[in-house]
Amino acid sequence: MRTVDIILKKRMGKELRENEIEFLIQGYNNGEIPDYQMSAFAMAVYFKGMTSQETAYLTNSIISSGDTIDLSMIEGIKIDKHSTGGVGDTTTLVLAPLVAAAGAPVAKMSGRGLGHTGGTLDKLEAIPGFKIDLNKEEFIDIVNTTKAAVMGQTAKLAPADGKLYSLRDVTATVDSIPLIASSIMSKKLAAGADGIVLDVKTGDGAFMKTKEDSFRLAQEMVGIGTHLNKETVAFITDMDQPLGEAIGNSLEVIEAIETLKGRGPKDLLELCLELGAQMLVIAKIYESAGEAKVRLQELIDDGSAIEKLKQFIAAQGGNPEVVNDYHLLPTAKEKLVVCSDVCGYVSKIESEGLGTLAMILGAGRAKKSDPIDHGVGIVIHKKVGDEVTQGEKVATLYVNTIVNEEDLINECLNKFTFSGEKTKKPKLIYGLVTKEGIKKY
User: Fold this and answer.
1) Which of 23, 53, 122, 275 has the fewest CB atoms found within 10 Å of its own CB?
2) With contact defined as beta carbons under 8 Å apart, do 111 and 191 qualify?
3) Which is the catalytic residue, given 65, 183, 340, 351?
4) Catalytic residue chosen out of the listed positions 10, 168, 230, 415
5) Cβ atoms < 10 Å from Cβ of 407
6) C-alpha–C-alpha distance, residues 238 and 200, integer Å
């Protein structure tokens, strides 16, 4: 078998066999196939695409390039949730304890933030003492004890994905749906969960900018899970404005706590109830999503969810008192209030722009080696469709270093567009993709 023949076959738009894809991925991972040939293959996939079967073979080959995690020692059906990334996306911090409180084991591996998107691990590390570097035995023990654990991904998990992603990043082939889908699903499936709920973001602050592409990506990932016998569903959700109100690590931890206390933003709560309900259905805790949603709300109302959060934090070495005392979290030195200069309605919010501004303040990183300032960020007080008056507060900047206060305020205000006419509030969820097909909302 020759690499050049496989590249040529894909360039001609023909379907590759499983052993051909396995030959490519293992050869590249072992250093036997050079970057220039793998670049040619990635470009051929970019232009010619892959069938669902090919994408499943690709995913399985990437999984086989490294270690997999055996979670069979965890009791019950293990559930994971993955978001494709956005701004203010605090769902994991809410869902892990909430779904665990309902009796489903949540065994989750998460990543760090990069660019305008936040990372779950960075948010959790804002909690004093919280440990994300768990070994397999600790991870399994915590899930069996508290029903929820979150840890960082190891370098040995799907290592071919890391090599492929670095290559795609410099060859303009990142935005290939089969390559994106196999990248995401290889890590999720290698992590050992029995079922996966995907939150595919769409819009300005998302990686996928159009609903059409987002539905295609969701279908591809659900297809991979189905081919590999893992129950997988995917929601397509809005990221044309930040989810919730907080952007930044400590700020998002506080928002998650408030949500579990029943006082969080409506959009964050609504999305968590929808995602959580599907997690419980896959875990076979409840037969219907409607029944599961009712139970999740009850767990918030009766205090069970917030108690589970305390257990979750303590089990991973964190200080559970942050639930009652937000001063224990890193805080910014200064607050800058951003006010509207007109009367009217918020017609648009630039999610990516606000995420990038939060990164510049120190809440995120432009490259993997950048440090994180857990205390800084942005809180949004007005969302799309809300009415504003001149001089009314639309956002607050939490900052530690101020170069030019007026420039920062104007930079934030420029991310809001106002209209004299009432603007319709956007949908939060556009649809659900399952192995049976697409249900548009």
Assistant:
1) 53
2) no
3) 183
4) 168
5) 10
6) 9
One-letter amino acid identity for 141? D
Domains and CATH numbers, the chain: 79-158+192-324+429-440 (3.40.1030.10), 331-419 (3.90.1170.30)
- Residue pair 54/21 in contact (Cβ under 8 Å)? The answer is yes
Nearest to 96 by CA among 133, 150, 151: 150
Whether 176 sits among the annotated catalytic residues: the reply is no
The one catalytic residue among 10, 78, 81, 82: 82
Which residues are CB-contacts of 170 (< 8 A; sequence separation ≥ 6)?
none
CA 363 vs CA 335, 355, 358, 371: distances in Å: 15, 9, 5, 9
Name the pTM for this structure: 0.92
The answer to whether 374 is a known catalytic residue is no
Helix/strand/coil for 177: helix
- Let me know if 82 is a catalytic residue: yes
Q: For residue 187, indicate whether it is catalytic.
A: yes
Which of 161, 204, 238, 373 does the annotation list as catalytic?
161
Task: Extract the tokens encoding 8.
Answer: 């040529």
Pick the catalytic residue from 187, 293, 383, 415: 187
The tens digit of pLDDT for each residue in 398-438 reads 999 877 899 999 999 999 999 999 999 999 999 999 999 99
Tokens, residue 168: 């795609």
Environment class of 367 (CB within 10 Å of its CB; exposed 0-12, middle 13-18, buried 19+): exposed
Task: Report which DSSP code applies to 326.
Answer: G
Query: pLDDT band at residue 179, thresholds of 50, 70 and 90?
Result: very high
**Which helix (H) or strand (E) segment is 347 a member of?**
strand 344-349
What is the DSSP secondary-structure string of 188-246? HHHTT-SEEEEEEEESTTSSB-SHHHHHHHHHHHHHHHHHTT-EEEEEEEE-SS-SSSE
Q: Residue 123 to residues 110, 330, 365: CA-CA distances in angstroms?
A: 11, 11, 13
Strand order in the sheet with 246-247: 246-247, 377-380, 393-399, 334-339
User: How many Cα neighbours within 13 Å face the side chain of 160?
Assistant: 31
pLDDT digits (tens, 9 = 90+) for 85-119: 889 889 999 999 999 999 999 999 887 766 677 78
